[in-house]
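Action item from last week, closing it out:
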Amino acid sequence: MRSIRRSLLSLTVVAAMLPPSTVHAQQAPQVAPQVAPPKWQDSWFWGVYGGGTSLRTNVERVNSPTAGAEWFITRSAVALHVFAEQSVFTSSSQLSITGMAAPRLVSIADLRRVGFGVAMLSPAAGDFKPYFEIGYSLNLVGTATDSVRSYATTAQRDSVNSAINTAKSSGRLFGSVGAMVLMGNWAPYVQATIMPTKGAGSSLINGDGVGYTASFGLRYNFGRSSDKGF
């Protein structure tokens, strides 16, 4: 009995000498504090932008002002980008039409682009967030009319007008690089886009090179989109 009492007394003294944090650690595991994700991650950005577009038809190069609106949904490493924009200009193009020996001269005006892309987000340097994007857009010429307006037959007229209407719209791949700066919920940004036009024989935007767009915009973060990545 005396040895048991001595053992209990020794355990009591040791327990009293332990710091409270050690005793608590033995009673319950430590829970790591939750770390909030970066403010650009898993967010819905809406934005507007303006800039300039340079396109090449097979007659001349067109330089025009451009304005648009967009939707930019971020995850941890990628973002979905949806946009609609319009460029304002007047120009000319040529279109090869089946059954006609020479290309037809066509007067064109304005271009609307609606598209989407997937942006690869690079690691942020502070509040500076660069990205690279690959996407696809539907390009629709606003108005297109036959400049010659001379036809051998009614069937030829209908054939020319049908070919012009078909050539008003075309789908093209594009690539962009951009960077935005996070300022609270606001994110001003710059972006440069390149779109090939060479080989687009069925389109009225059918030059022998590429088109360029440089834009400056402002995005606003309306809140979190999801805690899950793509």
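Closing note: Residues 9 and 166 are 97 Å apart (CA to CA).
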